[in-house]
Amino acid sequence: xxxxxxxxDRHPEKFGRFLERxxxxxxxxxxxxxxxxxxxxxxxxxxxxxxxxxSKFTRGAVGGAASLWRILNWIAGQNEPALVFEDDCxxxxxxxxxxxxxxxxxxxxxxxxxxxNTDSVLxxxxxxxxxxxxxxxxxxxxxxxxxxxxxxxxxxxxxxxxSCFGPAGNLISPAGAKRLLELCYPMDNRLVQIEALxxxxxxxxxxxxxxxxxxxxxxxxxCFAPLVVPRNDNATSTTYTHDxxxxx
Length: 248
Fold this sequence. Notes:
The protein has a single domain, classed as Spore Coat Polysaccharide Biosynthesis Protein SpsA, Chain A. It has seven helices and 15 strands. The protein has helices spanning 12-21, 42-47, 59-78, 95-102, 143-150, 174-184, 207-214; strands at 2-7, 31-33, 56-57, 82-86, 89-91, 111-115, 122-127, 130-134, 157-163, 169-172, 191-194, 200-203, 220-224, 228-230, 245-246. Strands 2-1-4-10-6-13-9-7-8 form a nine-stranded mixed beta sheet, sandwiched between helices. The protein starts with a strand and ends with a strand. The model has no long low-confidence stretch (mean pLDDT 96).
């Protein structure tokens, strides 16, 4: 199966660490040159329909949206599913075997989130009208917990996804790519209610918010136990910057 590891050209060391960290997964990982939001003009962003005119986003968030936009168009155009990874994530060694068992159990699916940030919440559907909302520990994995996670052999099931933050590994179908392009672009600053955070209304600041506003409109699933865990280190993030401005 085709895979993409999203990595900025100016940070080749992140891809190197990704390959070293995930060498035991049995996947021939492929680097995808990420869009650099620092180099994108308003004209380019508007032409790609990445951002609704006047909406405020950081250049990092726009670059991330552009990278996924290009990948989604590839998936839709080639009509084949693909794995998409962030370059800071750790992947379980048994991911291939688990997906081979899991995917046939899904009659129809658009998106399968393989894992998300562990410093926030996950809201999934156990059965119609029955949810589970959870937090994770540790909030920020380290080398020791990553090693234990990779060697884990806990069962993995797919549950309907209500909300999550920072999906760092995804499996996207052609139909799902088309739905995400339709529902998440152009990004705007809509308010999104997160029940797992006490029904807080959060303004959309990137693809996280857009995703949480549309998962219910898709055949979106999440793996639990997760198959991917990100480091999510804001100190080295190229998305969570402080240069938000209006585009267009």
